[in-house]
Amino acid sequence: MTVSNLNNREIDKMSVPFITYASDILGDTEKGLSGTQIVKYSSLYAVEYHVDIPYGIYPFLEGTPNKRTALNYNLQAFNGYQQYEIINHLCDLPLFSDNEEVKKLKIKLINEYSKFSINKENGLNNRELIIKTKHWLGMYPKSLKLYEEALTQYNNNIFQRNTLDNMRLSFEILLKDVLNNNKSLENNFGEIGKYLKTKNFSNELRNMLVKLVEYYSKYQNEYIKHDDNVNKNEIEFIIELTSIMMKLII
Fold first, then answer.
1. pLDDT at 62
2. Which of 69, 95, 133, 149: CA 20 to 30 A from 33?
3. Can you tell me whether residue 77 is helix, strand or coil?
4. Same-domain check for residues 132 and 232
5. What are the pLDDT digits (tens) for 199-223?
6. Among 152, 143, 176, 155, which residue's Cα sits nearest to residue 243?
7. Average of pLDDT values for 58-86?
8. Angle, in degrees to the nearest 10, between helices 160-179 and 232-249
9. Claim to verify: residue 210 and residue 235 sit in the same structural domain
């Protein structure tokens, strides 16, 4: 199923307040799309999806509201799947590469309206290890919330530094809950070994895991400070490594 095959009358739409919020950011007077760009992108999607939009000509006719309102009304002409695709695409434009408000908008879009994403089955979420980790973390909701946020950020190529930070914090909170203390990750190295000893793990495996967590902590402390230098393949490895360590601890 493609976005263009979805009939407007049969599909729910995003809420008007969210569309207004998105339009205000994407059509911001100083940092947003120009009136010409709004008409350009609106018209491209209108043609692709066979949708009539109210504002398809620029300069706008006399009496036309400002460009943010024009974008708002144009977006409201599309169905939910199409709105998701359009807003997601606009957020990824080079114009917004350093715009923190647009990054936050994309996070809200994904978190609140992922049901409209035709690509929602992509990414790490369908991997058996990830599915099982979410299941195991069901008893630890604070850790699970951060784990899922990290996955969302990774799967949508946003906030790479935050992906690492949230994954680390998820693991740290899990350890606090399981070990019944309030220590930081670095201060729990010894406690991890003691805990595994009570579960009859071998001395070699206990030492291996403690050393691995030490290097894990050093890596995190280095790279959460340097977002632009993070290799995406390394992020994927850290997510899977965190999942494996969580499995062992739980």
1. 72
2. 149
3. coil
4. yes
5. 999 999 999 999 999 999 999 888 7
6. 143
7. 89
8. 10
9. yes
Distance between the two ends of the chain, CA-based, in angstroms? Answer: 39
**Same domain assignment for residues 112 and 211:** no
Written as six digits, the tokens of 96 are 């917004």
Contacts of 11 (CB under 8 A, 6+ apart): 79, 80, 81
Q: Greater confidence, 233 or 106?
A: 106
Instruction: Find the helix or strand (DSSP H, E) in which 46 lies.
Output: helix 35-49
- The residues, any chain, with a CB within 8 Å of residue 61's CB and separated by 6 or more, are none
Alpha-carbon distance of 53 to 73, in angstroms, equals 8
CA atoms of 199 and 70, how far apart (whole Å): 63
CA-to-CA separations, 186 to 129, 142, 147, 206, in angstroms, rounded: 25, 19, 19, 16
3-class DSSP state of 159 = coil
Domain range for 155: 124-249
Residues 131 and 244 placed together within one structural domain of the fold: yes
Same domain, 131 and 242: yes
